[in-house]
Amino acid sequence: MIQQVDVFNSKLPEHLKITISVEIEKTREPLYQLFPYGDVVFVSKDVARHFGFHSAEAALKGLYDRVKKGAVLICAWAEEGADALGPDGSLVHSDAFPPETLVDTLGAGDTFNAGVIYTISNGGSLQDALNFGCRVAGRKCGFHGYDGISEMLND
What's one Pfam family the UniProt record gives for this protein (predicted)? Predict the structure, then answer.
């Protein structure tokens, strides 16, 4: 499917192209083939550690040569927040925003990714995207399920 989107995009002006995001979350060799296909690539802390990296920053610098030219590589590192490396070589960081009481972490990573994609797709900066992703993931950890996340858009 991604290859079909690439073919479709090749016929469009830059401002009309579909942005492709991929997440390499599990330490499974076949998934590593996805690195060069995303415009926005999320790599998990587990995958980063599998490659021998001990921080998000080290993982981004060590794995960036696997993504296509112009891509953004993002690595969330749980309670330490998240880092991103953009096509201009600049590294950006957001601290984590933990809730007062930790209730439910299931889906926090997906919530982070969604927050980042939402911000980028609405013209936000990479820094704004990381901050929003970390904020919404932190809030999600403060309650069961996903009820209340949409309130983040009004904050």
Answer: PfkB
